[in-house]
Here is the input.
Amino acid sequence: MSDHHEHHAPTGLKRWLFSTNHKDIGSLYLWFSFIMFLVGGLMALVIRTELLYPGMQVVDPDFFNQMTTVHGLVMVFGAVMPAFVGLANWMIPLMIGAPDMALPRMNNWSFWILPAAFALLLSSVVLSIFADGNPPAPNFGWTFYAPLSSTYGPASTDFFILSVHMMGISSIMGAINVIVTVMNMRAPGMTMMKLPLFVWTWLITAFLLIVVMPVLAGAVTMVLTDRHFGTSFFDAAGGGDPVLFQHIFWFFGHPEVYIMILPAFGVVSAIIPTFARKPLFGYASMVYATGSIALLSFLVWAHHMFAVGMPLAGMLFFMYMTMLISVPTGVKVFNWVATMWRGSLTFEVPMKWAISFVVLFTIGGLSGLMLAFTPADIQYHDSYFVVAHFHYVLVPGAIFSMFAAVYYWLPKWTGVMYDRFWGEMHFWNSLLSVNLLFFPMHFVGLAGMPRRYADYALQFADYNFWISIGAFWFGISQLFLLWVLIKACFLKKGEKATMEVWDNPEGLEWTVPSPAPHHTFDTPPIIK
Amino acid sequence: MPSTLFHRAAALLTTLMLSGVAAADWTQRSAENMRPGVTALSQDVYSLHMTVLWICTAIGLLVFGLITWSIFAHRKSKNPVPATFHENIVLEVVWTIIPFFILIGMAIPATRVLIHMEDTTEAELTVRVTGSQWKWHYEYLAYEDDNNVGVGFFSNLATDPAVWERPILSGGLFPVGSARSRVGAEREALSAENPNTFNYMLEVDNKLMLPAGQKVRFLITADDVLHSFWIPDFSVKKDAIPGFVNESWAKIPDDAVGIYRGQCAELCGRLHAFMPIVVEVVPQDEFTAWLEEQKAASAEGPDMTPFADLDEAMAMGEPIFQRACAMCHGAEGQGGIGLPLAGTDLMNNSDRVQENIDILVNGRGAMPSFRAQLSPKEIAAVINFQRHAFGNDGGDLIQPDDVQQ
Ligand SMILES: [Cu+2]
Here is the structure.
């Protein structure tokens, strides 16, 4: 750990534009994802304003569809995925004792594609707003089912297709980088079974990404050629099949949901042991569970399609496989509980996020198990019950784990402690509002409210009102995080962080000073 | 949160036990749980749902109970010296195996219900359901021994767009809190004077009529994009896919005569939320009589009596335009998804009347064909309307015969 040959790195814009440093690029990813989180959140607020009361209130139904579509795309590809890539960039080299990512120039490239991709996608929204909703932005749902997106898609669909291609390229490059780094740059003595769980989960995620992002690219390309080059992949009139689209999409889409949650498992598995002052329970079984979740994730895609009219045998197969995937997921939850058990717990802000992750993710997991049961899914499918389910695994799931990670490692990144008061405010307000926001969605969904509805029947009125209130509250709560970040990153105000930051935490990242210097582990540490 | 779900589920179960499973009418809709519905199948689905819900609640409570316990009992102030264990093979095997067996236990009833659900054989009535942007088309294909019934009609949302298109940030149709108190209230008919009715968004012009006590098979397809035909009370949900036909079925018991409501469940464009499904279940003899009446009407052929004057045609055309065209062309003909109709050459040039008729009858691009949906007289009426409304002056009166050829 010698930092004496610190380079004369460029400063200002050039530093960020040309950076090949994993910490700089990690910060870029993290800020980008946070901005996208706010942008996607604004779109969610448009949706919830419209749904505050029955009757069309503020926007045209078609603009409503544009909002649900772009909200989904921005949150999945712009907020959650880049956030975890940013975290991987910052933490993987620090955790395995490597000086940087293995392919630093590609790292730079894979980040800088993203702003371009989202500028393209969001330009269609800006255009739509200024042109009064016509020509519309993509308005076919983030799942872009054909033929609504192909034959019937608006002109902006082509922007969307190109931007998804760019996001895909960026993700694949990011994934290659993670794999090469973990495989080749571990410090001497760090065997695979000594890797921190966060590194393990990211390694497996990276393989998932490499397998499925090309499938997504295939799907958008087929939509493109159906639109412009006379093919009929998804058009029955030309011998194609709209259901084929869904098979391809969900063959990407199901592993994608694990891409968004496996790194979260890794984060929580790092944080709980620190604040329980006790090693992670069942490390090996965590690794095997992650691996089996990843493998099973390729065998369950059609559970998103139980209403398309599949053969009975197909439905049974996908039902059983989906039920099976809850076993390794359950193992993880039990392991976290066992890690806390008889530990010596303290509840700093990151720990609060981590524990609420375990509880609320479990709710999302259990509603997922309910959705596995095909006959019941016939009633749940495409209702708000599904919306409740995937928001539980993504918001208090993936996003809470990101918050946990930010509060946990922020002192290492910036050298100052986060503002405790606003951190607590952020946590408590988010915790309460997120449940007001998403829990009643289970009720309206079961009672029969279909998703992607710009207007709804009367019996859903009261819950929708409270859901919207929860949404505004949750939205405002995120501004507290913005303040915490500004204070720590730019104003550098706050208690100075020590090297270890926490009470005897485990991991190589705590052996470098806080803030972590620009270059770390130029000479690799030796792991006994 | 789990305890909320728990309490609600418990309260609901109690209500159901007291009332029997008589949630036959949509007025008895629950605001927070799945409706048991009225068919044997939907009630099987409901009890499967409740079983799974209870098991999940139990698992959830167990896990959250342990976490809560740990938070209180194992905090640093109470337990300053942490234990050091970090694995326990027996425990880990046990909590892998036990869930596995619970799952097998749940899979058995699920498989049974699914097999039942997929059995569409031996239907007595076959209805083809076609979804299109944004209405449903019902065609009665076969009933008992008659394999060529030949009755069909379209079903559109009956709520006037003027009712749901509210001005920006109006206080909403219903002050908060009033919706719940209306559950169980007398249903009012939907009318222009009384738009705030209980069945807002769930009322159609032509209901799907079905007989009680007979197995009905639905053949479900679509004309344009995907739709999904969902009637919660029958546990029927099947995607409508252009170019493909899906099957589903319902057998409504004799004592479940009444009205059931559902909605389109697959995103299908701008008015996805505005294509409800309304089913009226009547006793068999009543159904047979209704069907005979419909057959006779369709055998008679369409009404071709000419319009007496432009006013008559305009009066007939206006509601048709608002119902069938306004969502794309705008209530004032200003355009939207469809081209503007106000003040265009096509509308005002009397030499282009035939072109106008062709577009309506055969469709063009994203403009649907109305041949099957409207009678020649209705098409003539709506053409007269659009050529003389919105400041247009499109020439002579068009008669049903002009459209017929
Ligand atoms: Cu539809």
Q: What stands out?
A: Chain A has one domain: 2-511. The pocket of copper (II) ion is lined by residues B 131, 227, 264, 268, 272, 275 (CB under 6 Å). Residues 61-96 of chain A form the longest helix (36 residues). Chain A touches chain B through 102 residues (CB under 8 Å).
